Every structure is written in structure tokens, then in C-alpha cells.
Amino acid sequence: MKEGIHPDYKECKVTCACGNSFVTKSITEELRLDVWSACHPFFTGQPKFINRVGRVEKFKNKYNL
Fold it and tell me: With b meaning 16 or more CB within 10 Å and e meaning fewer, what string describes 3-40?
């Protein structure tokens, strides 16, 4: 490899929105992810439901039903 043309390769802390974190190597010092293989429903096999509480009440209030 040629000297002086490659970026610095340093430790990088990766943090997911689910709270998991780990250290790897990258050219950046920190990465923030929304989802990764430990919390993605495809890899875990468990469906993840979005919080839908209050949507019916919100609809009824909006249209005075």
C-alpha cells in the first residue's frame, strides 16, 4: 500500500437505537444505527409491532365520531 493516501483506521463505537453497542474498526469514531441484525425482525424471527395505541381514538376525535 502507498503511504499517505489511505484514511486513518481506528476504533469505532457502534450504537443501535435498541441500546446495544459494540466496538469495531472504521474510519469514523462513532456510528449510530436505527436497526441491525441483533434487533431486526428478519434475523430474530420475532415480529416487531409499532405502538398503535390511541390511533382509533385519535381518528374518532378528528372526525367527531
Answer: eeeeeeeeeeebebeeeeeeeeebeeeeeeeeebeebe
Residues 39-58: tens digit of each pLDDT = 777 666 776 655 566 777 88
Phi, psi for 41 (deg, rounded to 5) = -60, -30
List CB contacts of 23: < 8 A, sequence separation 6 or more. Answer: 11, 12, 13, 14
Rounded CA gap, 38 and 15, in Å? 12
**DSSP H or E segment with residue 43:** helix 41-44
3-class secondary structure, 26: strand
Query: In terms of pTM, does the model score above 0.70?
Result: no
